[in-house]
Amino acid sequence: MLALTCHIELFSQSHYRASIDAAEHLSPLFNEVFLFHWKEESQHAIIDELEWECEDAKLTSELQRDLAVDHLIALVGGVEGILQAKPRPMQRIF
């Protein structure tokens, strides 16, 4: 989970740099809000990476590491499945 979370946070930072930071037509307030979010995600990514390194140090065999990688691949596959799922039309509640 730490690996997946860390990668999602790194992705959001990359997305900000590529799409929001470089956009000159956005309002200064909008840019400032997302810059603050980018800084917060940066802190999260650093903490997650440190925790990830500690967890990795606890693995005592290649088999454990391979199993951890298999779990990460399964988690990424699950996220991909969610992202690719077709949205359901909203139902009227009344």
**Amino-to-carboxy terminus distance:** 40 Å
Assembly state of the chains shown? single chain
Basic shape: flat
Number of strands: 0
Pairing-aware structural class of the strands and helices?
mainly alpha
Strand content: under 5%
What is the helix content?
A: over 70%
Major sheet size, sense and barrel closure: none
Q: Count the helices. How many?
A: 3
The whole-angstrom Rg is 18 Å
- Mean pLDDT score: 86
**Unreliable runs, pLDDT <50, ≥5 residues?**
none
Number of domains: 1
Order of helices and strands: HHH
Write a brief structural summary:
It is built from 3 helices and no strands. The chain is mainly α and 94 residues long.
Describe the structure in your own words.
It is a single chain. The chain has 94 residues and is mostly helical. The protein has one domain (2-84). The protein has 3 helices and no strands. The chain has helices at 2-20, 28-58, 62-84.
Descriptors for this entry?
single chain, 94 residues, mainly alpha, 3 helices
Layout of secondary structure:
Layout: H1 2-20, H2 28-58, H3 62-84
Helix pairs in contact: 1-2
